[in-house]
Design goal:
Layout: E1 4-5, E2 9-10, E3 15-18, E4 21-28, E5 31-37, E6 52-58, E7 64-70, E8 94-97, E9 102-106, E10 109-114, E11 119-123, E12 128-132, E13 137-143, H1 150-153, E14 173-182, E15 189-193, E16 205-208, E17 223-229, E18 233-237, E19 243-247, E20 254-260, E21 263-270, H2 274-285, E22 298-301, H3 310-322, E23 329-332, H4 355-366, E24 369-374, E25 377-378, H5 385-391, E26 396-397, E27 413-414, H6 420-435, E28 440-443, E29 454-455, H7 462-485, H8 516-530, E30 540-541, H9 550-561, E31 566-568, H10 582-597, H11 599-612, E32 617-618, H12 620-623, E33 637-639, E34 643-645, E35 656-667, E36 674-683, E37 692-694, E38 698-702, E39 718-723, E40 728-733, E41 739-745, E42 748-755, E43 760-766, E44 773-776, E45 783-787
Parallel strand pairs: 22-23, 22-31, 23-24, 24-28, 30-31, 39-43
Antiparallel strand pairs: 1-2, 3-13, 4-5, 5-6, 6-7, 7-21, 8-9, 9-10, 10-11, 11-12, 13-14, 14-20, 15-17, 16-19, 17-18, 18-21, 19-20, 25-27, 26-29, 32-33, 33-34, 34-37, 35-36, 35-37, 38-39, 40-41, 41-42, 42-45, 43-44
């Protein structure tokens, strides 16, 4: 929210109460509690009237300092972001006091508090990270006539009857809490969830309020109240409702955070590296579970508005198999159910007369898992609608009637997942689908959740529930799959999410056009999401809206198959490769085979994400924070620490351009080609290629060729590829725990299975030009020694 007119004046009618002077300090076990006046206190008379703000400065875990700002102290709200849901906090705290200040220290992070003027300065061992200076915190009364935020003026408020959805007159003013942190020269801001605009967020206004707006707008399906800087800290805003963030867009050298109400909390998260910041943030908000290895294969969809039946589906799968492009997951989009009945959770008998028999047949014949599309909306024409009404399973208006509207489906209502009986009812519908062979669900929608003049079963604040709804929806479905199919077998394909939603993967980027620009939007969305605590990211290969030209389709396929999860999906046209030429199918087969062969590396990254919170797809600056050039790069990324991927976003006749950091890098496709960075490369890239480079010092483990699937025994017939490994010992872990060790010493390299069991098929000393060598190894050998000369 912007409160000022220029830098000196307030907007008309705004009344501020700035936190100015600490009048009392109480030391607690986890920090300090401050009472801060909003007027200078010169004598006792100044203590009469005016807001006094309570500020708690505390540390919940190592390397993290929280600042909780309260005006009126209400009872604890019913809707909160779960903290430490699957990892324990690590206490690390020291408190000290001097004549001038109070200091809280934890794992290299210091918060220094001064009383008059009231300030908080956050320091690392090397420098000041940021600070909240005089007048950086306060409460603001804003005239309601000009402060209609998303939470009071969203299209969610529309009704099918056209009646006023917000009948009570607004108050004359609305109270906000606002807090600002300094932006240093050269400091850059990233994150806020899946944002499709500029990768660097400086100069933007960001609303943390989930909306269904596509990838070509400033709205987002997965808003996350967390941002990271290139200055060794991140900020997690612990508020589930609408939060407005001015990133140098109101005061150009500050990040301002505001929300309606009387309480705001944020955490400064320090890290020596960006990845350590993510480790500490995901310790607080959660890390993903281990995903099934089959999810990393190719997903193929029926597309949305296309006409399809069981015959169509079988034709797709046979065509993919015939072209050596094996599908691992087949997805049935909306029209597996009858039109106007979404959701009924029942296969359309006209197109699928025997769904159980048919799913069993294609699973056996084509080796696929089955995914079906669902959402939490129930059409009035669905055969189960009356069940929901009679059971009280839907979100209700204040008068007790179900909340309904006509957007998307006729008279749809929305399941109220705060009602345990509604959850049981919904789960029963999904259980019946699992019984007939469904393996996973695409949990679509959950952004347009009403918040005005509605009530939830458990009395939750509707505004605080708006973003959190996507979490409880996805958690319910994910836990069902885990309970039914077993630990490590659950996966979603979800669109909406929020802070902590990384615990219920996978997420894809929503509705994008079939253009170069939309492909770049999808990448920015992926990179912003994985900078916000999410380990995995996907997108609609080829774009959703429209029919992509063959060239864009092929470039998007390459980008998609070097993403963590890869799905072919569109709206009104199919995304099977032969629709774009047989050459497209041939190229897809090559790229898919490459992804399958990389599974020992990729799946180990996925396992590590459950332990550390590190993403698979990484913005370049996550791996190279000392290289300032990488801080702006948003058209290339690292797949884990070792592979640089630079998708092509220009027509074939134009040159693409990408950046290689320092060191001697080796081309993934042609090991005889090396380049020494830092350097910008400009080149024309053939349509059957994508620039992929291997980082110097890499020990890359790959599986055997032509596995035909992503899930196989990663310890058998390994290909060990060495890229300028350093003197001494280098280790790599095979999924399952086997450790491969490389010892380089005195001109010799020894490759050993150091722990566990594995068989090595090839050892490849790559990136040495004319000195490149490949050694074929007899199956079962666990130690290889050869000279470098």
């Amino acid at each position: 929210m912007k409160f000022i007119d220029g830098f000196w004046l307030l907007k008309n009618g705004v009344k501020p109460y700035y936190a100015l002077q600490v009048v009392k300090v109480d030391q607690r076990a986890d920090g300090y509690e401050l009472q801060v006046s909003t007027r200078p206190i010169r004598h006792r008379g100044d203590t009469l009237g005016g807001p006094v703000i309570t500020v708690k400065v505390h540390s919940p875990t190592e390397g993290v300092v929280g600042v909780k700002i309260d005006h009126f102290c209400y009872s604890e709200p019913t809707v909160n972001i779960p903290l430490f849901p699957n990892a324990k906090p690590v206490p690390n705290l020291d408190l000290s006091k001097s004549e001038l200040n109070y200091t809280l220290s934890t794992a290299g992070l210091e918060a220094v508090i001064t009383e008059n003027p009231y300030t908080i300065t956050f320091k690392s061992p090397k420098r000041i990270l940021t600070s909240a200076g005089p007048k950086h915190q306060g409460v603001f009364d804003v005239p309601s006539r000009w402060t209609l935020s998303s939470a009071s003026n969203s299209s969610c408020l529309a009704t099918d009857s056209g009646s006023n959805p917000n009948p009570d007159p607004p108050p004359p003013s609305i109270r906000y809490i606002n807090s600002e942190l300094n932006l240093s020269p050269g400091e850059l801001i990233y994150g806020f969830g899946e944002q499709f605009g500029s990768f660097v967020k400086n100069g933007q206004t960001v609303k943390i309020w989930n909306q269904d707006g596509g990838t070509s707008s400033d709205q987002a399906y997965k808003c996350v109240p967390f941002y990271m800087t290139n200055r060794n800290y991140g900020v997690f805003i612990n508020h589930p409702g609408e939060v407005e963030v001015e990133v140098g867009s109101e005061k150009v050298s500050r990040v301002g955070v505001s929300t309606v109400g009387s309480s705001l909390e944020y955490f400064i998260i320090y890290g020596e590296t960006p990845l350590q910041i993510l480790e500490r943030y995901t310790r607080m908000t959660g890390r993903p579970p281990v995903l099934p290895s089959w999810t990393f294969g190719l997903w193929l969809s029926t597309s949305f508005l296309t006409s399809y039946s069981s015959e169509t589906v079988s034709g797709f799968l046979q065509g993919m198999q015939d072209r050596n492009v094996p599908v691992r997951v087949f997805h049935l989009d909306c029209f597996w159910m009858k039109q106007y009945e979404w959701c009924s959770f029942t296969f359309d008998p006209d197109n699928f007369p025997d769904p159980k028999g048919y799913l069993s047949e294609i699973k056996q014949k084509f080796g696929v898992k089955i995914c079906v599309w669902i959402n939490p909306y129930i059409s009035q024409l669905s055969p189960i609608f009356k069940e929901g009404v009679n059971g009280g399973y839907f979100i209700k208006r204040i008068d007790g009637t179900p909340w309904q509207w006509d957007l998307w489906q006729p008279g749809l209502a929305i399941v109220d997942f705060t009602n345990p009986k509604a959850c049981e009812w919904y789960i029963a519908k999904l259980n019946a689908l699992i019984d007939i062979g469904v393996d996973c669900f695409k949990t679509d929608f959950a952004e347009r959740i009403p918040h005005a003049s509605v009530k939830f079963f458990d009395g939750s604040d509707p505004i605080r529930m708006h973003n959190m709804y996507s979490i409880i929806y996805n958690e319910l479905v994910f836990n069902l799959l885990r309970d039914r199919l077993g630990e490590g077998e659950a996966v979603l394909f979800a669109r909406a999410s929020f802070a902590g939603g990384q615990r219920f993967p996978v997420h894809w980027g929503g509705d994008c056009e079939s253009t170069w620009e939309a492909m770049a939007e999808a990448m920015r969305g992926c990179l912003s999401l994985t900078l916000s605590g999410f380990a995995f990211a996907s997108h609609d290969i080829g774009g959703f809206e429209g029919h992509p030209p063959p060239e864009i389709y092929q470039r998007w396929v390459a980008f998609g198959l070097f993403s963590s999860h890869s799905r072919l999906h569109g709206s009104s046209s199919y995304r099977v490769p032969w629709n774009y030429g047989e050459e497209a199918a041939k190229n897809m087969a090559t790229l898919l085979e490459a992804k399958h062969s990389l599974m020992p590396y990729l799946y180990q990254l996925a396992i590590q994400s459950t332990e550390t919170g590190h993403p698979m797809q990484r913005a370049m600056f996550l791996e190279f924070p000392e290289d300032r050039t990488t801080h702006y790069l948003d058209r290339q990324f690292m797949m884990g620490p070792s592979l640089l991927v630079a998708p092509v976003f220009v027509p074939q006749e134009e040159e693409t351009e990408y950046y290689i950091p320092a060191g001697r890098w080796t081309n993934f496709w042609d090991h005889s080609r090396t380049v020494v960075g830092p350097i910008w490369i400009k080149e024309r890239v053939a349509l059957d290629e994508i620039p992929v480079w291997v980082r110097p010092g890499t020990l890359l483990l790959r599986g055997p060729p032509k596995t035909g699937r992503p899930d196989y025994d990663y310890s058998k017939d390994l290909r060990v590829e060495l890229f300028d490994v350093a003197e001494g010992e280098t280790l790599a872990t095979v999924p399952g725990g086997t450790v491969i060790r490389v010892d380089r010493k005195n001109g010799k390299v020894k490759v050993t299975v150091a722990e566990g069991k594995a068989s090595i098929n090839y050892v490849h000393l790559a990136g040495r030009g004319d000195h490149e060598s490949v050694m074929k190894v007899d199956s079962g050998v666990t130690e290889v020694v050869y000279g470098l000369d």
